[in-house]
Amino acid sequence: MRFEDRTVFITGAGSGIGRATALRVAEDGGFVVATDVDETGGTETVEAVEAIGGEAVFHELDVTDAEAFDAVVETAIGEHGLDAIVNNAGIGHSPADTEDVTEETFERVVDVNVRGVWNGCRAALPHFRARGDGAIVNVGSLASFLGLPKQSVYSLTKGAVMNFTRAIAAEAGRDGVRANAVCPGFVETSLGNMHFESMSNPEKAKAQAEKQYPLGRFAEPEEIADAIAFLLSEEASFITGHGLVVDGGYSVS
Ligand code: NAI
């Protein structure tokens, strides 16, 4: 019960990696503040947590809205306390050469993936600093370290998430705050599948991509959630500013 008496705030908790993280934290005794722009998904996550005997509450939240973010964090602190935040919400874009990405796509992806993480850290940090304790996990990607072809804007945002995480770790470590990133390879979620959807034969393309993973398969969302939970927990008490790559060996092969 690593998270007993601890409250973990999760963005993008209505689906994929965010939902798996909510379930992992709840299994280990933590109270989950599940947030998402998608009310249906977020509510389903709370129901899934309750179905395993855990405790969670849902707040609708668009991470790009700083004022709303501050308000939901304030409410969470008032009602449940706040020990950790997982800035997981993120979006991708269809594969495209850099010059073919529209300004609208650029702005939207940067807004959610970069501003959203900034908003989350900015909202939680004063509370964490004041109590001298807090853990932040930002969800990066393999694209935090590798330049992915036809994913240059996504790569730009995930590189930014990684270096922002390092800066927070350096800045707030003396205040008792740890900040880390989890950087997954492909995970079969709605976001992950978007990468293949525009291809002529998505199933064939996926099968070929899977072969490039030394472990011979893609990750399950639960395997990413395990890495996030580890970095949130006391087991990682001396780890900060780290980008934990969870990619079945893809980046070293
Ligand atoms: P997903 O699409 O299953 O879940 C993303 C969630 O974020 C959804 O519930 C969605 O409603 C929510 N969301 C989107 N925009 C939002 C906003 N403005 N405010 C609040 N919530 C918002 O995708 P997945 O795969 O679970 O993605 C989670 C994170 O993992 C993202 O940051 C993504 O970039 C990252 N990631 C995913 C990989 C994959 O292959 N699936 C690989 C590497 C990183």
UniProtKB/TrEMBL annotation:
* Keywords, comma-separated and alphabetical: Oxidoreductase
Would you tell me the protein name for this molecule? SDR family oxidoreductase
> Cross-referenced NCBIfam families, in alphabetical order?
PRK07231.1 (NF005559)
Q: Which InterPro entries match?
A: NAD(P)-bd_dom_sf, SDR_fam
Does the entry feature the keyword Oxidoreductase, yes or no?
yes
Nucleotide-binding in keyword set: no
Q: Which residues form the signal peptide?
A: none
Q: Which family does it belong to?
A: Belongs to the short-chain dehydrogenases/reductases (SDR) family.
List GO molecular-function terms, semicolon-separated: oxidoreductase activity
